[in-house]
């Protein structure tokens, strides 16, 4: 008789475990839509910063503008920090790297990146160069953006316009 109670109790425990496994919340029913991978447009905007990366003076609002444009256009954004001394000779390979990456928009903020990008722009007419700071150069594919409290919005607007012009 005792053996019958043990078997019955074991059956109840197994049935309870099965019931819990079936009806326990899976964590997917939390009212939120399932996570999805973000779909990007075939268009990219790349920021060249100083050695401090996004912590460089003035880089934060420019990066935020790129992210704003990406959020509503699907443009891929990235940045590259130029290591080493802040000289035109040192920055040239970094600008060329962004050109080789086939960035559709190259954004530079601060010297000497703006000078180097403006000098390289005429040789790459299919790329939009956004120069954040004093306007240097007069190539048709250079968009100067004044440093102001609106730099974030201004950078985002230029990137959106370039993406729209390219059909994205």
Account of the protein in words:
By secondary structure, the chain is α/β, with parallel strands linked by helices. It contains 5 helices and 5 strands, in the order αβαβαβαββα. It has helices at residues 2-23, 59-73, 88-100, 113-120, 151-165, and strands spanning 44-49, 76-81, 105-109, 128-132, 142-145. It has a 5-stranded parallel sheet, with helices on both faces. Strand 1 (44-49), helix 2 (59-73) and strand 2 form a beta-alpha-beta unit. 33% of the residues are buried.
Gist of the model:
The protein has five helices and five strands. The chain has helices spanning 2-23, 59-73, 88-100, 113-120, 151-165; strands at residues 44-49, 76-81, 105-109, 128-132, 142-145.
Topology:
Layout: H1 2-23, E1 44-49, H2 59-73, E2 76-81, H3 88-100, E3 105-109, H4 113-120, E4 128-132, E5 142-145, H5 151-165
Parallel strand pairs: 1-2, 1-3, 3-4, 4-5
Helical coverage, percent range: 40-55%
The unreliable regions are: none
Q: Assign the structural class, choosing from mainly alpha, mainly beta, alpha/beta, alpha+beta, or little secondary structure.
A: alpha/beta
Overall shape: elongated
């Amino acid at each position: 008789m005792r053996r019958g109670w043990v078997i019955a109790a074991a059956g109840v425990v197994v049935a309870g475990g099965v019931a819990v496994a079936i009806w326990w919340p899976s964590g997917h029913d939390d009212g939120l839509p399932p996570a999805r991978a973000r779909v990007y447009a075939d268009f990219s905007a790349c920021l060249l910063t100083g050695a401090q990366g996004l912590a460089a003076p003035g880089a934060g609002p420019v990066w935020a503008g790129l992210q704003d444009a990406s959020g509503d256009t699907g443009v891929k954004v990235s940045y590259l920090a130029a290591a080493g001394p802040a000289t035109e000779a040192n920055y040239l390979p970094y600008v060329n790297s962004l050109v080789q990456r086939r960035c559709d928009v190259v954004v530079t903020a601060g010297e000497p990146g703006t000078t180097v990008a403006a000098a390289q722009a005429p040789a790459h007419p299919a790329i939009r160069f956004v120069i954040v700071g004093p306007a240097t150069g007069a190539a048709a594919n250079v968009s100067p953006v004044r440093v102001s409290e609106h730099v974030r919005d201004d950078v985002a607007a230029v990137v959106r316009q370039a993406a729209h012009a390219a059909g994205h």
